[in-house]
Design goal:
Blueprint: H1 24-40, H2 53-76, H3 82-94, H4 97-100, E1 114-117, E2 120-123, H5 140-149, H6 164-167, H7 172-182, E3 196-197, H8 206-214, H9 228-240, H10 244-247, E4 265-267, E5 270-272, H11 288-297, H12 307-315, H13 322-333, H14 349-362, H15 364-367, H16 393-401, E6 403-404, E7 416-417, H17 425-436, H18 448-456
Antiparallel strand pairs: 1-2, 2-3, 4-5, 6-7
Helix pairs in contact: 1-2, 3-7, 5-7, 9-13, 11-13, 14-17, 16-18, 17-18
């Protein structure tokens, strides 16, 4: 199958031709006739001195040029088709735009939601077509420049909390389809606060250096050796869905560690697990069907979504088409294992004994003695990739805060887990270490200091 790099991997095809081929002689004759007839009307007879012919002819030519320009401009601003708007909506859903750009559920896409980063807080902008505080007066070129190059309307640079390093992989037609969809939203007036970043990052000029070091604009390049479904999944994973924004570790300046793509990353107190083929903490043990079920329902026989991923499921992947979710699963299952998982030394026996006692007292009623739980209601613990991540942040968040099973149209039943914040830091560390190293699991032990830090980050 031969794929074109500039044809959207998201959209199956385009409509029929809107142009008709004519010979160059016919075209030239038509242009000549179109100009001569109106101009001749303004050339006065020589004996009529009241109307200067050359000046009238010039006015006629200028009028024709103005009309042609207006006609071309009108064509450029033609209303987008229903198909284009539908494609833009699907891409906006895949990009989970609503999660970041909605602070008040009564004002969807109106921005103002705070996004915490290691460098301070950033507030998402208003994406509605409000002319004063949204993008209602933006041109197509300005919108494309924002997504493809990370450049604001005033020429300054965005911060990479806005995932333009991923959106740059979208082709222009798809970017403008997203804009077409956003233009159909209800205009909502809302002016988000300015960023609250540490000095000197509060000066956007420094982002020029960041872009020079870490940002490479360019659309997704299909792999000619792969099937169309794989390329469609890659276009979504690397582009619109920007999975790497959370699931790739970052360097000290907040840029992706490119040698560890999809190797897991820390995001707002949660650890987004590995998406590569790692044996314990990645997706090696998951089938493509497991991934599809997880993305569509927020749970499967191996794990449940929680925290930020629960938002992604509810606002994005549960609303995507079956074909797009399947394409993502096919692409992810083909990712090779990245960096080797660390060798794990078995925890001290006294830690395991204490942790086992706490588990028997607080957890066994739902998760069973062997950790199998009740799949899709109470997640199983043996072989749980999230549980075995090198970073225990997500496990600690659930133990400290409790958990609520995400509900979707495909999985409407609820389930919950209470908070165990009343336990001491050492007790939570011991029970976390126990479940991370029982029933065949293997992960680094958790310390009381890690629990104390997690409490502070709530």
């Amino acid at each position: 199958m031969k794929l074109c790099a500039r044809k959207s991997q998201f959209h199956a095809g385009y409509g029929g031709s809107y142009f008709r081929l004519v010979s160059w002689r016919e075209a030239a004759a038509k242009r000549r006739n179109a100009l001569v007839a109106p101009v001749s009307r303004y050339i006065a007879p020589r004996e009529d001195r009241s109307v200067p012919g050359p000046f009238c002819a010039m006015r006629a030519i200028l009028a024709i040029l103005f009309l042609c320009t207006a006609f071309a401009s009108g064509k450029a601003r033609a209303e987008p088709s229903a198909e284009t708007i539908a494609r833009g909506k699907a891409l906006a859903i895949a990009g989970d735009c609503a999660s970041c750009h909605t602070a008040d559920p009564a004002k969807p896409f109106a921005g103002g939601k705070r996004i915490d980063t290691p460098f301070g807080g950033i507030y998402s902008p208003n994406l509605t077509p409000d002319r004063d505080t949204g993008i209602g007066t933006w041109s197509d070129a300005e919108f494309y420049r924002a997504l493809h190059y990370g450049i604001r309307r005033d020429g300054s640079r965005y911060y990479p909390a806005f995932p333009y390093p991923s959106f740059t992989k979208l082709i222009r037609d798809d970017v403008l389809a997203i804009r077409a969809y956003l233009a159909t939203l209800e205009p909502l007036r809302n002016r988000p606060p300015p960023p609250e970043l540490l000095w000197p990052l509060n000066y956007r000029v420094f982002m020029r250096g960041w872009d020079w070091l870490f940002f490479q604009p360019g659309i997704f390049q299909p792999d000619q050796q792969k099937a169309g479904q794989w390329n469609r999944g890659g276009y979504l994973v690397e582009g619109a869905a920007h999975c790497g924004a959370c699931h790739t570790p970052k360097n000290i300046l907040g840029a992706d560690k490119r040698d560890r793509m999809y190797g897991g990353g820390l995001v707002q107190g949660w650890f987004a697990p590995r998406l590569d083929g790692a044996e314990r903490s990645g997706l090696k043990s998951w089938s493509a069907d497991d991934i599809v079920e997880y993305l569509q329902s927020g749970r499967n026989a191996r794990s449940h979504a929680d925290g930020l991923m629960a938002e992604v499921v509810v606002n994005s992947t549960a609303k995507m088409s079956d074909e797009d979710v399947r394409a993502i699963a096919v692409y992810l299952k083909d990712l090779p294992a990245g960096a080797p998982e660390p060798a794990v030394t078995p925890p001290a026996q006294d830690v395991i004994t204490t942790g086992a006692g706490l588990y028997a007292h607080a957890c066994i009623a739902c998760h069973e003695a062997d950790g199998t739980g009740a799949p899709r209601i109470y997640p199983p613990l043996p072989g749980n990739a999230n549980l075995q991540s090198v970073d225990p942040s997500s496990t600690l968040r659930i133990l400290l805060d409790g958990a609520q099973t995400v509900t979707t149209p495909r999985a409407p039943n609820t389930g919950s887990m209470p908070s165990y914040a009343k336990l001491s830091d050492q007790e939570i560390a011991d029970v976390a270490t126990y479940i991370r190293n029982s029933w065949g699991n293997a992960a680094p032990p958790v310390t009381a200091d890690q629990v104390k830090k997690a409490r502070r980050e709530k």
